[in-house]
Amino acid sequence: MHYVSQSATKSRGDTSRRISSCAQALADDRGLDGFTMDDLAEAAGVSRRTLFNYFSGKVDAVLGEWRPLDEADVARFRDGGPHGDLVADLRALLAPFIEAKFADRDELARSRRILLANPRLISTVHQRYEELCAVVVEQIVAREGVAFGAGRAKVAISLLAALFDASLDGYLADPREREFSHHFDETLLIARSLLGA
């Protein structure tokens, strides 16, 4: 049996983030079509071969790696946990995305600027979102039953995505520089009060 050490996992994550940060800097400076993978390898201080071990192309490098949902979290959600409330449990299931250590606000603003300027990036993000959404919808239906319906599950996920985007605005503009999770939870409370949920 092969085990990957925590230091190896951390090292891989650090390298992946460094490559993505360099890809974003190049995309911001030159545009997505204004640099090559060779340029990116040089900027990130890795070989071309190493670069392709992490990312298949510039779009993936700029967007970075998206972690899959934790299997234990998915199983707990499907079994009705951890709180017994669908919205609170969806928030817990998606906590890795909500509580992730975001880059500093300038880097996050740059990421958003690059994304909005490049239709290919938007298309890829949408595809990744749809893939994640399909997994979560399947788990909601498994948890709530077929009568709940995939349509209602999709609405729940779409609402959370809209709350994520609204929270991002608040996070970027917050003079007190509070964590993103603070803004998301605050936005979620507002949505619940507006929807009477």
Automatic annotation (TrEMBL):
Name of one Pfam family that matches: TetR_N
Entry keyword set: DNA-binding
HTH tetR-type domain boundaries: 13-73
Transmembrane regions listed in the UniProt entry: none
UniProt xrefs under Gene3D superfamilies: Tetracycline Repressor, domain 2
Start-end of DNA-binding region: 36-55
Domain of life: Bacteria
Protein name per its UniProtKB record: HTH tetR-type domain-containing protein
Lineage: Bacteria, Bacillati, Actinomycetota, Actinomycetes, Propionibacteriales
